[in-house]
Amino acid sequence: MTDQALDAAVAKLTEDGAAPSVISAFIDRYTRFAGGESGYLYESDLEPLTDPPLLDDLPMDDGAVEAFASTAVVRLNGGLGTSMGLAGPKCLITVREGLSFLDIVVRQLLALRAEHGVRLPLLLMDSYNTSADTLAALEAYPELAVDDLPLDFLQSREPKLLADTRMPVEWPADPALEWCPPGHGDFYPSLHASGLIPKLLDAGFRYLFVANIDNLGALPDPRLAGWFAASGAPYAAEVTPRTEMDSKGGHLSYRVSDRRLVLRDTAQVTPDEMGFFVDTERHGWMHCNNLWLDLQQVSEVLDANEGTLSLPLIINRKTVDPADPDSPAVVQLEGAIGAAVEVFDGAQAIGVPRSRFLPVKGTAELLVLRSDVYDMTADARLVARTPAPIVQLDPDHYKLIEQFESRFPVGPPSLVEAQSLRVVGDWTFGADVVVRGDALLEPMEDEAIAGPRFVPNGAMVTSTGVTS
Q1: How far is CA 49 from CA 228, 239, 245, 256, in A?
Q2: pLDDT tens per residue across span 133-166
Q3: Can you list the alpha helix ranges (DSSP code H) found in 85-127?
Q4: Phi then psi for 66, rounded to 5 degrees?
Q5: Which CATH class is domain 4-356?
Q6: CATH assignment of 363-467?
C-alpha cells in the first residue's frame, strides 16, 4: 500500500533538488512518525551519566599535537536570528568590541593555527537562508581558506506536514513557510551529500570537531583531539555540569537495555516526566553539542546506510506561520546531531569545564557575554572573571534585539558582582550601573507593570531594587 502523503512529500523534495541521502533521512523519519513513534524517552529506561573522564586530566603531549594536525572544524550556522527579531544570520549579531559571533570564531581559529602550526580548516554548515550573507562576511578573512576546501556546505530543508493529514503544506501567501530545517541532525546526510568526507580524508584530516556557531567557548582543543584519537571511538560528546539556567537543555544518559549512551532533549519528554528531566542533581551533565567524529568510521557507517543515520525522532508541532497561531497546525520531523551518540558502537562522553559551553539562545545570555563578567583576550577567547550570573529579562520588552539594544543604549551594566538579575517590566539602563548579589528590578507594589522606567547613571541594582 502506498502512502499518498509520503509520495507527495518525496516528490516535493525531489523537485527541490534534495540529495538521495536527504530524501532517505526524511523517509526514515516520516515512516516512524506515521507508524506511531512518539519520540519519547522514559525515565525508567534511562540511567544517569556519572563520572565521565575530564578534560582537565588530559595531557598536552606529542599525540595531542599530531591528532590536532589531523583535525578539521565544522560550525553549525543554519540559523537566522528570528527568535530575536532578526531576518539575517544569527552569526552576524555583534557580541562585543564590534565583533560578531562569526568574527570571534574565525579569529579564535586563526590564533590556534598560529599557536600550534596546524591547518585547522573551518567549514560552516549553512542553510539557504544564511549562506550568502555569511560568505560575504568571510571575505574579510582571505587567509581563512585551506587548499581547495570550501568554506561552507548547505544543510537541507524538508516540507512541513499538515498535522491532520500528513500532506505537505501549501501556503501560497509565503511559499518559503512551506519548508523547515530538519534539525541539526541533518548534518550527517548533508555532509555525506556534499562530498566533503572523502575530500577531507584525502587532504589528511581524520577527525572533525563540530560545534554551534553561537557557542564562543567551543574552541577545538589539542588535548581533546589527542584523547579522542587515542580512544579509537568513532564519536564523542562533550558534557558539562548543569545549572539552573540550562536545566531544560539536553543531557546524556545510559539506556538501560543496552548500556548505550543516548541524548534526551525537551521534546522527547512527556509532561508528567519533566520533573525528572530538569533535575540537575539526578542528571548532572549537560550536553554541550560539541562533538568529535572519526571521519573514517563515520564514513563507513553512512556509506552502509544510504548516506544517513536513523536518529531518534523529534516531532516539533507548530503552525505553518509561526507568527500566526490561527494558521494550520503542522509537524516538523527533526533529529538532533548529538543523538547520533547512540548509533555508534563505542561512543564516548567527556566532561569539560563550563567555559566550553557559552551558548547564546536569547538576549539574556548576550547581555552576560557583553558585560564585564568576561574579558576578551588578544586571541579572541572569552575568559570569565567570575561565575556568570543567571539573567532573566522580561520577554515583553527585551526578547527582540531592537528592544534589547534600546534599553541598554550605553552598554550593559556591571555584572561581575551579581549572582542573578531578574528584570520585570520595561527598564532602560543608564551608564555605569552596577548589579550586585541576587538583584531584582520590578514595579513597586502600588505601580502598574506597564510603562517605561529608568535606572539612573551610576545606580546600583540589588535585591531591593535601584539605589543611588
Answers
A1: 19, 10, 20, 11
A2: 999 999 999 999 999 999 999 999 999 999 999 9
A3: 101-116
A4: -65, -45
A5: alpha beta
A6: 2.160.10.10
β-strand partners of 93? none
Burial 45-75, CB ≥16 within 10 A → b, else e: ebebbeebeebeebeeeebbbebbbbbbbbb
Spacing of C-alpha 29 from chain mean position = 21
pLDDT bin (cut points 50, 70, 90) of residue 450 is: low
> Cα(32)–Cα(315) distance, rounded to whole angstroms?
11
Domains in the chain: boundaries:
4-356, 363-467
CA 119 to chain centroid: 25
Helix (H, G, I), strand (E, B) or coil at 262: strand
Q: Over 50: is that where the pLDDT of 205 sits? A: yes
**Residue 94 near residue 405 (C-beta atoms within 8 A):** no
With DSSP H G I counted as helix, E B as strand and the rest as coil, what are the percentages for the chain, rounded to 5? 35, 25, 40
Three-class SS state of 155: coil
- One fold for both 4-356 and 363-467? no
Q: Read off the pLDDT of each residue in 87-92 and give the average, rounded to a whole number.
A: 90
Query: Hunting for cell 520531523 — which residue is that?
Result: 333
DSSP tally for the chain: helices H, then strands E:
13, 26
Give the pTM: 0.92
Q: How confident is the model at residue 451 (pLDDT cuts 50, 70, 90)?
A: low
Q: What is the spatial distance between Cα 310 and Cα 119, in angstroms, rounded to a whole number?
A: 33
